[in-house]
Amino acid sequence: MHHPIRAKTQVLELWKLVQQAGRQKRDEKELLSFVGNRTALRGDDNFPRVVAAYDFSILIKKYSLASPKRLLVFGTDPEISLLTVGDRVDYVYDQDKGTNDLHSLSSSVLGSGPAPDLAILGQTLEHLYDPALAMRNIFSVLADGAYFFASGPLTSIPHRTPMHFYHFTAMGLAVLMQNAGFESIALEQWGSNEYETALFQKMAWPGSDTLKNLGGDQNHVDFVWGLFRKPTNSSAVSGKAGLVWSCNQGTLLQHPVYTKMSLLHLWESVVKPSTERRRDVKAMQDFAMKRTTLRGSNDFPRVVALYDFSFWLDKYNLSTPHRVLTFGQDFEMSLLTVGDHVGYVYDQGKDTNDLHSLRSSVLGSGPAPDLAILGQTLEHLYDPLLAMSNVFNVVAEGAYFFTSTPLTNIPHMTPIHYFHYTSMGLAILMQKAGFEVVELGQWGATDYEVVLFTDMWWPGWAKVKNATGDVGHVDQVWGLFRKPRTKP
Hints:
With 488 residues, the chain is of the alpha/beta class. It has two domains: 246 residues, Vaccinia Virus protein VP39 (Rossmann fold, 3-Layer(aba) Sandwich), CATH 3.40.50.150; 223 residues, Rossmann fold, CATH 3.40.50. It contains 14 helices and 14 strands. It has a six-stranded mixed β-sheet with strand order 2-1-3-4-7-6, with helices on both faces. Strands 9-8-10-11-14-13 form a six-stranded mixed β-sheet, with helices on both faces. It has a two-stranded antiparallel sheet with strand order 5-12. The relative contact order is 0.12. About 4% of the residues have low confidence.
C-alpha cells in the first residue's frame, strides 16, 4: 500500500512549521557558555551538534522532558548529558558485527520494562539505507505520547562508507517523521558559509574552537534537527487532521532488510569503481563546447554527468531509442535521435504531472518507453521510492533509466526540496524500486563547493578551475539503471 499523494495544500501547511527553522537568532555568548559548562560538548568536532544540543536544552524545559522514565538511545549523543534518566536502553549499532540494526528494531529488545517515553537519535539518519523503515520501527517501540529528538546533516562529507546514503532538509526530516507516524513539534536548522568552506577545504568537521560566526548565516543549511511526538492515541494517526499526514505502511516498508554482505557487494562491484573514475578534462571541454546547451550551463557537474551519459549511450547502444520519457528540459536529449518523445513535466503552479501519481495511462496509446531521463529532480520528491516505482511501472521491460541528483547543494524550489543522495543512496533507491544498477558516476571539487556556498548559486565551467575533481568530494551523483526482462 502506498503513502497517499500529498496535496499541495498539505505541503504548504507543513512548510509553515519548517519556515520557523533558521529564524532563531542565538546568543553566541550563551552558546559558548553552554558548551563550557558541559564536558560532553567541549571537544565536539562538529559545531552544529552543539547548536542542536543547545536547542534541545530549551525544548526539554518547554515540554518537561528533563527526567524521562525510560530513555532509548542509539549512540553517545551529547543530549543525554542534559537529562536525569530513570532507566536507559542502549541500542547501539555494531558496524563490525552488524548487530543492533535499526532496520530490524523491535520491542523484544527492550526487555520487560515499560516502553520508552523519550528517544534520541543523533548523526545516524545519513547512515540508514531505509530511514523510513528505521523510523517506523522506533515509532512502534515507543510509548504513546513519547517524544523523539533526531538530528542529521544536509551538508557533510561522505564518511563510514559504504554506510552513508542520504542527507535531509528540514522539510525532508519532517516528511520522514510524519510518514513514520510522528507529529512534528519543533524543527530547527543551522548553517554558515564559514563552516561550509572549512568543512570542504579541510575535509573535517569544524568545532566551536575554529569558527567565528557561531550564529550562522541566513539561508545556509548544514544541519537539521527536530522534536517529534508519537500521538497519545497512536492508532488514530491515520487520517488525523493538521500537520500529521496519513501513514499507512508505504512502499519503503515492503522491502527486505539488506544484509551487511549485500551492501558491501553493491559498494565493491558498482559504487566504489564510480568513485575512482578519472576523466579526460580536455576531451570533456571539447565535448561541452560542441553543444550549445552546455556552453552556458550554470551547474558544472551536469556537464560531467552528460559526458558520462554519452559514453554509456555508445556502450549500451541507446542513442536511437524508440520512445523516450522525460520529466524536464534535460541536456541529455541533445545526444539522442528519438523516435517518439513523451514529456511529463511537473507544473508547480497547477500541481499537475506529479511523479508520485504517474501512471501508464498518461503516456497515450504508444508502446512503453524504452528510455527515461530524470535530471535534477530526486531532491524535490517527498516519497522518492514511490515516484521511482511509478517510473519503473510505466517503462518497458529492458528499458534504461538515467537520472542525476545532488549530494551537495543549496535548498531551492522550497518548500519542495527534501533529500540529497550519495551514490550508495541512489543505487539502493533504484534497486528497491526494481531497477538493476548498470552504471554510476559522481563528481565533486573544493572550488565548486566554495563558490556554491559563497555565491549561493551554481557555478558553471568559468568558475570551476579543477574540472577533474577532488578525491573524496561528492557534489553530484548520477546513474544508468535498467528494468529487468521477465524470464520466460
